[in-house]
């Protein structure tokens, strides 16, 4: 590899050779790396301490991300290899997803058809059902955090558990996490549950069908108004070609009433998902 570079020699992840940048988030950079001992390629997420507020809860979240990934074992969740820390950063070594993220894919394809969308959503809901059963809320499901395992296949994996919450006895999730365009309406009320992830999945699906962001607002207050105003009529007008089954599915996934909104398990049992289901999908 050109300009191979070794990361800090004192970490457990020391010998990885950095090949190229794969992506970037608010606090992290993800680098395609090579483990010279096994010749295996992997994605190394480098969370720079300089960008974190170490007095604050940020450190806790890095640790949570690694701990959750370590615990999870699901074909539609990115696999964890190892983690480490030095004075500059936290490092999380992950399975390399060759196909990039869903936002990049959407930009290339323009839109997805219903069949492909249903096959992708079925995998996402399968992973969401699994994490919810583990008592975890992802809180930042969005197109950038859904990765394609292979280049030209539609196998997807959920990534980025940096904002996730693990349910605790006698405690409720607090604070607004996640990214504006995928936020569920109840997040603004201060009381929310794992159903926020279902709403985010609905927004992901809406974007796959339209090829566009769902809102026009430029600040949180403007977007908040649009989120609170989103209804099935508005959804239908954005995708006039949608099948009745898809509209029925979206109306239950994007239901503002969290008691009526689908669970991940409900979503997996809906005919829109079932009629396109691939025979080899993992059982939830
Ligand atoms: P952040 O928490 O900073 O948002 P992410 O974990 O979401 O970081 O990673 C940022 C971007 O890096 C992703 O949107 C994706 O494009 C890329 N990326 C992350 N993990 C992987 C991976 N395992 N394989 C390939 N690309 C990845
Ligand atoms: Mg991310």
TrEMBL record:
Per UniProt, the keywords (alphabetical) are:
ATP-binding, Kinase, Nucleotide-binding, Serine/threonine-protein kinase, Transferase
What positions constitute the catalytic site?
140
MF-aspect GO terms = ATP binding; protein serine/threonine kinase activity
Binding-site residues for ATP, renumbered to this chain: 45, 49, 144-145, 160
For the cross-link Glycyl lysine isopeptide (Lys-Gly) (interchain with G-Cter in SUMO2), the position is: 142
Record bears the keyword Transcription regulation: no
Q: Where is the Protein kinase domain?
A: 16-273
Keyword Ribosomal protein belongs to the record: no
Which superkingdom is the protein from?
Eukaryota
The Swiss-Prot or TrEMBL record describes its family as follows: Belongs to the protein kinase superfamily.
The protein's assembly and partners: Monomer.
Protein name as annotated: Protein kinase domain-containing protein
The scientific name of the source species is Stentor coeruleus
